[in-house]
Amino acid sequence: MALSLGASACTKGEGAKAEGAGADPSGLPSRPAPTFETKNLEAEEVSLEDLKGTVVLLNTWATWCEPCMRELPVLADLHRSLEPRGFTVIGLNADSRRKLVAVRKAVAHNGIPYPVWVDFENKAQVAFELNGYPTSFLIDREGNIRWQREGVIVENDPEFMRALEQLL
């Protein structure tokens, strides 16, 4: 299954879609995150399961996606400021293996302080039912998706920050 997205169609727009399923007393929807394993930039095996106990923003992105590239500094700032509270951003890159040099350059150029995982086999497209990039998933400490967005997270994004604060 291929994800066909043009340069202008890699996102459905800022704040395009935020959703989830189920509910709990926090008022946030909840559904289990899929089991997902891949590799990081150092070619080490990584897994969402290993992050239980941490609030995770899993952000799917690609170097060819201009909205994704605009979002990177915002996510870097979020990670830096909230990591002491048990929060991490995971950047899940969807570029092909042949673009690994470009991925590394984008990470270095943007000073990305958070882990970057690579998805050369496009497993996330199926596991997370991706429709476009960027798409972000806010995962609680127990491994449940509590919020998601197809589109860009902007600086001081009120909807995202409300959901995040409830999980921290």
Automatic annotation (TrEMBL):
Signal peptide: none annotated. Residues 14-35 are annotated as: Disordered. Residues 27-168 form the Thioredoxin domain. CDD domains: TlpA_like_family. One of its GO terms (biological process) is cytochrome complex assembly. It is found in: Cell envelope. It comes from the Bacteria. GO terms for molecular function: antioxidant activity; oxidoreductase activity. Keywords: Cytochrome c-type biogenesis, Disulfide bond, Redox-active center. GO terms for cellular component: cell envelope. Coiled coil: none annotated. Its main location: other. This is Thiol:disulfide interchange protein DsbE, putative. It comes from Plesiocystis pacifica SIR-1.
